[in-house]
Design goal:
alpha/beta; single chain; 14-stranded mixed β-sheet; Nitrilase/N-carbamoyl-D-aminoacid amidohydrolase; Rossmann fold; globular
Length: 692
Amino acid sequence: MGRVVAVATCALNQWALDFEGNLKRIVRSIGIAKSSGALYRLGPELEICGYGCSDHYYESDTLLHSFQVLAKLLESPATQDIICDVGMPVLHRNVRYNCRVIFLNKKILLIRPKISLANTGNYRELRWFTPWTKARHVEEYFLPRIIQEVTGQETVPFGDAVLATNDTCLGVEICEELWAPNSPHIEMGLDGVEIFANSSGSHHVLRKAHTRVDLVNSATAKNGGIYILANQKGCDGDRLYYDGCAMISMNGETVAQGSQFSLDDVEVLVATLDLEDVRSYRAEISSRNLAASKVNPYPRVKVNFALSSSDDVAVPTCMPIKWRHHSPEEEISLGPACWLWDYLRRSKQAGFFLPLSGGMDSSATACIVYSMCHQVCLAVKNGNADVLADVCRIVNDETYVPEDPREFCKRIFTTCYMASENSSQDTCNRAKLLAEQIGSYHINLNIDAAVKAIVGIFSMVTGRTPLFSVFGGSKRENLALQNVQARVRMVLAYLFAQLTLWTRGMPGGLLVLGSANVDESLRGYLTKYDCSSADINPIGGISKTDLKNFIQYCIENFHLTALRSIMSAPPTAELEPLVDEQVAQTDEVDMGMTYAELSIYGKLRKIAKAGPYSMFCKLINMWKEICTPREVASKVKHFFRMYSVNRHKMTTLTPSYHAENYSPDDNRFDLRPFLYNSTWSWQFRCIDKEVN
């Protein structure tokens, strides 16, 4: 009697439209699964074409190339004698579906379309796909000729069905279906499905991993069963980092855990589990068995194949493990670092350029690059040949082996302190010391000549010379003079990024890194087209509060003592004249609100869906110990005025690593107008009425 099954899941670093690379990674994962004794292999959502194809899903080329890859997989010796479950888009009766294609020994067993599509936040699946709404219904799918020639099949089952092997029953969920209130695994489990397989394209958000783990474990805690989850990992071409965490759970407990952050393009988990443990677990849940006796059955696709062998009494099975979660500071250290590495190697650039101001945000960005260098050296030390090959190409040296993160950092990371007459010696020293400790190639320069030249042109044309406020100038003059400095820095950053390596006799250019945090973007506390304008920004989705904690983490774990003085210094843009050689301008005074308040405003605006009136109503209770209702009203009004007049800046926001669910990213996550009536007259009158 067969009872012990070996199943495999994986996390693959797929890349949108990289059909050749995606095929190689899929084949490699199947080979690893087979060599580990698995007879079923599950892969991530839409792994053949890559999840992030966006509007390329509309193109017939994407469908064609996906089927061409599927044909290669069907023909590959690696896919023989193992049930393979892969993801790709499929056009059925002129409707496009997000599908799983399950096959065995050159025969397609089932094409299972996604039932619940992800369509919130960063996800737009309803734009490209249609959900399958015919519950427990199967139709004939006519295969394209390139597949018919391989399988000898003309049609295959397409729809909501489960697989019945000789020893068990297996059902499929696709990503969002696990998160839905009416998840298919509930009814499938009641209908006798013992193994649930979920292929996901789930991205990283700070503090989110435990939610996913809890959902998987709870899926089988009430109903029994084996739950297998595969996920994409890495940057597949946009702002998201897919964070792996492939896992296998049985009867409510985790038995196998994959890494959340890793430079390995292919990671495979295999678990050996006893089906009798599922059956005995279910046997004593009388409420479950009563519901199961009345369930509407699923169509079953019979498969003459077993996931177990008849002689398995001595086969050891996996035991439950305790899931190890990363702290938020570890997540910031690892997630954006892995995202940067993918972006660097796939963009075929030679490194990064960062304007390093000596403040907390740019220092946090520098620390993330340093963390990336640590991860690269560790991966090479552990024998990752793919990472080593990428390193050699990036540094243009086939013999190079990175061993010391500081030495590797020197090769691929250039930092630059751009001083002006308004810069303090303190920030200059902080930037220089941090650069020394992480090993970056550091440049000091002064922008005053360029600023004076630009202001001089304006004065020559208009006959007027703007002044800072401290010298009698208006607010408009003061702001314009600050913006000139900021924008000059952006122009110089791109010039040095393009030519710095050339001056050092090295090939290639550098990616410019931005360092505006999520709170500043929300408030609009940045100059449009200043150093916040860059190629990519690893901290653009992270709050100031979390960045402070991350800096402390770097002090303790990377021993970067230069960060101590950076942490203790008040945040400042250093764009206004010094007073007695000391900084007089600070961010929180400029903004008229604290960073802690900004985080609260951001979460209420986006996550709680609060407009001005609702935000006021919530905050008079949250802040009743520290603010009067009138003070709360004043704070809320000031935030919404500043948010609305600066919202236009979000249309040009540098692509940022998505890490917070209150990100104001205008590209796809936070869709809002960028021309507001900033008086909010009706809304503010409602607030005033409540105050009175």
